[in-house]
Design goal:
The complex is a heterodimer of chains A (334) and B (96). Chain A contains 15 helices and no strands. Chain A is mainly alpha-helical. In chain A, helix 3 packs antiparallel against helix 5, helix 4 packs antiparallel against helix 7 and helix 8 runs antiparallel to helix 9. The relative contact order of chain A is 0.08. In chain B, 72% of the residues lie in helices and 0% in strands. In chain B, helix 1 packs antiparallel against helix 2 and helix 2 runs antiparallel to helix 3. Chain B is elongated and about 50 Å long. Classes of the chains: A mainly alpha (334), B mainly alpha (96). The interface between A and B is medium-sized, with 34 and 31 residues.
Chain lengths: 334, 96
């Protein structure tokens, strides 16, 4: 039912909808872009022969349509009141809440791990990266600083503590995505360029991880130990996980470093403390996975031999980028 | 803007629609109906707002087109659910 030409068509409209939403000069155009986004994403994820994907697309539809209808109502209330351009009022709280529900950020995150559990890896990649763009940019147009700082703290804590008890790789990446949303929302409050930088590096890291899991068809954590994996694939997994957690010599440290720099310049000391501590918890559970994958070898089955001759160059390239890009990026200024 | 009482009607309709949406229902169709009720309240709100701008109703038509698209998408998901599960009860969700 879902062949490639269908997918291309809906993907094209998906990309176009984000462009409509972020380049419109009225709030109503933004709402239209969000609606078209929903309309074109649902056919990509629904497949009526599978019980799981029907339930997934239903949950996605319900939450996203509620959020965009609420967004429109708040736009109309803002339009009818007309008197203030002040950003720190209750209308901005309601508009920001509906956009946060669209993104899957805490405290409106309960649909996100469920839906991520029901989608394939490619659909997850679309959900985690591209679907965050237009709510983020709309958030930057009219945000309430105090409300968003509170939401950032909630995001960080839920993203880090929620992932501690997961065995499914998709849910793990979902909670990691919620945590990274906290960093991204703060970077929006500073400047949009900084958000773009963080977002590009984050989507590059997520794409490396998801392509690895997709090629090896891995959905759960026990599949990391049971398979007879090549050492280089495990090394690539280690590098990507540590890069996602934000450890220094890897690529993922650079955007977090810049955000911490801005945090300290603007004297957000308590917020810096929360950013640091939740990053520690996330790195803890990444290392727990990788440690088991490296040290323990449950089975050495002769017939499950993952030959990845055609794809080794991609893995080597992604490891090289993750290790060296932070140091190479300083060579720009020479 | 001589009459301010009309705003209370829109906000009341909107909140009641939201309340039914988030309540525990037996059927999925009730949730989709509440979504259409919220759309109706926004339609009314739009109508009154645009009446104060020299009766310029074109935006209302654009809004109507998009909400109808969204409603039909909801119905198609309902149909897909009935095809696979056999009914539209919320209790038949056991996977996620």
């Amino acid at each position: 039912m879902n062949n490639n030409s269908n997918k291309m068509f809906f993907l094209f409209i998906l990309f176009f909808s984000t462009l409509i939403s972020i380049s419109s000069n009225s709030w109503f155009g933004c709402w239209i872009g969000l609606e078209i986004n929903l309309l074109s994403f649902i056919p990509l994820i629904s497949n009526s022969k599978n019980l799981l994907s029907v339930e997934t697309s239903l949950k996605y539809f319900l939450t996203q349509s509620l959020a965009s209808i609420n967004f429109l109502f708040m736009i109309l209330i803002k339009f009818s009141l007309l008197k203030n351009f002040n950003m720190n009022n209750i209308i901005s709280i309601m508009m920001n809440s509906s956009l946060l529900m669209k993104m899957g950020s805490a405290p409106f995150h309960f649909w996100f791990p469920n839906i991520v559990e029901g989608l394939s890896w490619m659909n997850n990649f679309m959900l985690m990266t591209w679907q965050k763009i237009s709510p983020m940019i709309l958030l930057s147009y009219y945000f309430n600083k105090n409300f968003l700082i509170f939401m950032i703290i909630t995001n960080l804590i839920i993203g880090s503590l929620g992932g501690l008890n997961q065995t499914s790789l998709r849910k793990l990446l979902a909670f990691s995505s919620i945590n990274n949303l906290g960093w991204m929302i703060f970077s929006i409050m500073i400047s949009e360029n900084l958000w773009l930088f963080y977002f590009l590096i984050y989507s590059m890291m997520i794409s490396m991880m998801i392509s690895l899991f997709f090629l090896m068809n891995m959905y759960f954590m026990n599949q990391l130990f049971i398979n007879n994996m090549n050492f280089f694939i495990k090394l690539n997994l280690l590098i990507n996980f540590l890069s996602l957690g934000g450890l220094p010599p890897f690529m993922g440290f650079m955007p977090k470093w810049i955000i911490i720099n801005f945090l300290l310049i603007n004297k957000f000391y308590f917020l810096t403390f929360i950013f640091m501590m939740t990053s520690l918890i996330i790195i803890y559970y990444y290392i727990r996975i990788i440690y088991s994958s490296f040290m323990f070898n449950y089975f050495k089955m002769k017939w499950v031999n993952l030959l990845m001759k055609n794809n080794m160059s991609l893995i080597n390239l992604s490891s090289f980028i993750s290790i060296s890009s932070m140091i190479l990026s300083t060579f720009i200024f020479m | 803007m001589l009459i301010y009482d009309i705003w209370f009607l829109f906000i009341y309709m909107f909140f009641v629609g939201n309340l039914i949406f988030v309540s525990k229902n037996k059927h999925l169709l009730v949730v989709l109906l509440s979504l259409e009720f919220i759309v109706l309240s926004i339609f009314f709100f739009f109508l009154v707002l645009l009446m104060f701008i020299d009766y310029d109703m074109y935006m209302l038509m654009v809004f109507l087109v998009f909400s109808v698209c969204e409603g039909s998408l909801g119905l198609s998901i309902l149909v897909s659910m009935i095809r696979s599960h056999g009914n539209d009860y919320f209790q038949s969700f056991s996977m996620l």
